[in-house]
Amino acid sequence: IARQLEGECAELVMGVAGCTQAYITRCRRLGVKRPNSEILRAIAEGSHTTRKTWDLAQNYLSDIGVVAASSVFQHCKELRVLRLNHSGLYNSAVAALAPCLEGLPHFHTLDLVDNNIGWKGGIALLALVKAKPSLTAMPTHGNQLDAHVPLHLQLANPDSRTDCPMSIQIELCLNANRIA
Hints:
By secondary structure, the protein is mostly helical. 53% of the residues lie in helices and 5% in strands. Strands 1-2-3 form a 3-stranded parallel beta sheet, with no helix packed on it. Helix 1 runs antiparallel to helix 2. The N terminus is likely disordered.
């Protein structure tokens, strides 16, 4: 039993070290000067894969930081809530985040309050809500989701309703998910 436990501990340490190194390497490749300390702490504790809630509110992650962090989030199979309010996020952060959240079976809340997400990010969020029926809460106030979508994009995306603001479209889809 002692050898088995010793082997499991060594595996855990290698897993933590490997994940930490992978995150730091991805940050460097993307030009992130300082990897997020909260993410590094969670990896070091070994709690990153079992966390049910990640609260990264008021951590300036920026778009590039979210791209790096998405490689960690996608392995959090127990993740239910991700708080990224006041994190300096723009449209490309949402585009990077959406695919990794789709694969999380229990995920239901994404907090994006007070970022800089516009209609382009709104389109990605709307697609995420439609693809992820378990997603039932997504506070987005304090963003620019309802800025006017250019006509050529409205025509290219027949699912987008031109007579309804993006935030309302997202809320309608969230309501449908809550009912289902």
